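Dear support,

I submitted the protein below through the web form. The confirmation email said the job was done, but the results page showed an empty box. After a refresh the structure appeared. I'm attaching both so you can tell me whether what I see now is the final result or a partial one.
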Amino acid sequence: MKILLGVLLLLNLALYLVLGPYDVPAKLLPGGLDEHAGSGLTLVTEADPAQLEVARNLTPATGTKGSSEGGPTGVITELPGPGPAMSTPRGRVAICYSLGTLRDRLLVDRVLGELGADGIEAKVRTEERRGDLSGYWVLLPARPSLEAAQAQIDELQQRGIDSFVVGTGEYRNAVSLGFFHGRRAAEELEARIRAQGYNPRLVLRYQQESQYWLDLDETASERFGDDTWARLGESYPMLGRYLRDCG
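What the results page shows now:
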């Protein structure tokens, strides 16, 4: 009997030396944290519930700050894992008023005067926008230089075609053939020039309009009460009041 027990002990010892101990990897345990998951931060709302349960049972390291005064200390709000951390907004967002839009500078000055009577200052901001269609422009594409454009002018004049060189702007060194308020007349000229071997373009031209805004800073916006707005709204029905970030 003693011999049999001795043989069994020797067999167990041999198996231990050959195969070694069996450990279950931590990441395979329910709720286990994978140490290779990364060094980023994951929001509590995005974390795995199993990880949260493990985190709640962890003992905070020395020096861990607690929550706000009166709350529990050592509360874990973030877990190791991939993904960016959420940044906390700092300070408040100041909201200011803008009044607009006005298309007449005289009206702008009148509104400024009424605001000034209430001790409210405003800064005038001007914006340019495209207005109504003003006409149709027939021209030849811009030449590489003024000399080349002038040479084309001479050629056109020999054929009895009136033209001139555009000296500035987007179409500098182009050859203007005519400007028309009606589309039909412009298309007829374009067809006639094309029939003579040229490649004219028909360009739509629009009026440029100025729009004016009155921007109030934070102090002026605080002074801009409903009484002032009601008075301005009655005198200038085209005026609107808009909110914007003071920054």
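Response: this is the final, complete result; the empty box was a page-load delay. Strands lie at 41-43, 78-80, 95-102, 123-140, 164-165, 175-180, 201-215, 240-245.
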